[in-house]
Automatic annotation (TrEMBL):
Gene Ontology molecular function terms on file: protein-lysine N-methyltransferase activity
Gene Ontology biological-process entries: methylation
Keyword S-adenosyl-L-methionine: yes
Listed Pfam families: Rubis-subs-bind (PF09273), SET (PF00856)
Natural source organism: Helianthus annuus (Common sunflower)
Protein name stated in the entry: Putative SET domain-containing protein
Length: 469
């Protein structure tokens, strides 16, 4: 996924614009790195000797000061950026000229000319990465390429095996991952003839290697005026969902910069925000999740029973009064019968977190006569055109509609609990880590489902009590 990237006064966000699956993703970082599921308030740190020459090289290559207040270190979550001097909110803490950023236009014209129009910016930049990986120490970008994560240290679900993916099969993330894997395989097929045309550079490049390079771009790139850019040094920032710090782009000065949004003391890890993403998006793109992520959500599907004698009438009514399906805020695709549900904070509140469109669908599905459907259509026409957005006048039918949803949520909760119970111990470190990620991820989605179920149960009980008064 690409990180949020601000150009001048306009924000380019991967959550809104993604020509490929992730052709423009907004990176999001929280106090955990790509392979972990939780973070503490205090972060341990020591100097990262493996990248000791990186910043001097970048400074020399750009001919400019990159940062005088940040240093590369390691926390318990991996490579990170730390304050080496006091930082005040409003300070410019990093500047990286465009000249030392990798983008699709870094691809040699002789290679680029052979690529079809169906090959997007992510695949092109992945080729750039593969090329410089093959050059090794002879590459002018070797100090940067050598600091990028190895495939065994990355845990995006696109890198999981089929067996590992089965751990999250209960979640819509499973299908999103398969869809994205298919896109990567399609891109690999589209560039295979180019790899074969330049054996001196790409001999023996496998789908696995391409997938690694592809995910490096998706997890570390920012949308830019060059399509997508990898910004050395800036991509060592970790994510804090509460941070207001973004990577800014100044096309006039041809530089990307970061402005601190809070004070940091020497030794503090400095954090930015990749975006407001659910754990499904974080795990798909970056390979980590956030405990009790306030942006987390679960896809819930509710279908009209095909044996309903009013099935055709109900579908027609829904199509006439439903706005075109939109992608959710995390850019995970959804179908017309898919609804993104967030945590309901209070079981006695207004049910915020459960989409009104989902409750409206339940009201339509519980209608038992053409007259009831006509009444809902008339009500929508007389108001703002949206269907069944207010409680049904028939209180029993209103209860029935929400009991339908409660039943659906209860069924999903049972399946999630069964999936969690099925997770068993793995021997290898990588499998143990991914199993823990799967467990924490499913636990978070289960929490959302239980919060919605609790609200629906309370709502139905409240209506029944009013009826009995």
């Amino acid at each position: 996924m690409f990180m949020q990237f601000v150009t001048g006064f306009q924000i380019y966000s991967s959550a809104i614009q993604r020509p490929l699956w992730a052709t423009s993703r907004c990176r999001i970082r929280t106090r955990c790195n790509f392979s972990n599921s939780s973070y503490p308030h205090q972060v341990l740190q020591y100097i990262d000797e493996e990248c000791g020459d990186f910043l001097p090289w970048l400074r020399q290559k750009s001919g400019a000061e990159i940062s005088s207040v940040l240093s590369i270190g390691k926390s318990i979550y991996g490579r990170s950026l730390f304050a080496c001097k006091p930082i005040q909110a409003g300070d410019c803490i990093l500047k990286v000229p465009y000249s030392v950023q990798l983008a699709p236009d870094n691809l040699h014209p002789s290679i680029n000319s052979l690529l079809g129009e169906d090959v997007g910016n992510v695949a092109k930049l992945a080729l750039v990465i593969l090329l410089h990986q093959r050059f090794g120490e002879a590459s002018e970008w070797a100090p940067y390429i050598s600091c990028l994560p190895r495939v065994e240290d990355m845990h995006s679900t696109v890198l999981w095996s089929d067996e590992e993916l089965k751990m999250i099969k209960i979640s819509s993330l499973y299908h999103e991952t398969l869809k994205h894997k298919g896109q990567i395989e399609k891109d690999f097929s589209s560039i295979k003839h180019v790899l074969d045309s330049f054996p001196e550079y790409f001999d023996g490049v496998t789908l696995h290697e391409f997938k690694h390079a592809y995910n490096l771009v998706e997890s570390r790139g920012w949308v830019s005026t060059r399509g997508v850019s990898m910004i050395p040094f800036a991509d060592f920032f970790n994510h804090d969902a509460n941070s207001e710090t973004d990577v800014l782009s100044d096309d006039f000065k041809q530089v990307s910069e970061v402005i601190a949004d809070e004070n940091y003391a020497p030794g503090d890890e400095v954090l930015i925000r990749y975006g407001k993403f659910s754990n499904a998006r974080l795990l798909l793109d970056f390979g980590f999740i956030i405990p009790r992520n306030k942006y987390d959500q679960v896809k819930v599907e509710v279908n009209a029973p095909p044996n309903d004698h009013l099935h055709a009438l109900k579908l027609d009514l829904l199509h006439r009064h439903t706005t075109p399906s939109l992608k959710d805020v995390n850019d995970l695709s959804s179908q017309e019968n898919g609804f993104m549900v967030m945590e309901v904070k209070s079981s006695s509140g207004k049910g915020r977190g459960i989409p009104q469109s989902l409750r409206a669908l339940a009201r339509v599905l519980c209608c038992t006569s053409p007259q009831e459907l006509q009444d809902l259509a008339m009500e929508a026409t007389q108001n703002d055109g949206r269907l069944a957005r207010i409680p049904l006048k028939n209180r029993d039918r209103e209860v029935e509609a929400h009991q339908l949803l409660h039943s659906r949520f209860s069924h999903m909760i049972e399946n999630y609990k069964a999936a969690l119970e099925s997770l068993t111990h793995h021997s290898s470190e990588k499998h143990r880590r991914r199993m823990q990620l799967a467990r924490d991820f499913l636990t978070g989605e289960l929490r959302i489902l239980e919060s919605a179920s609790s609200w629906l149960k309370n709502y139905c009980q409240t209506l029944k009590q009013r009826e009995s008064v």
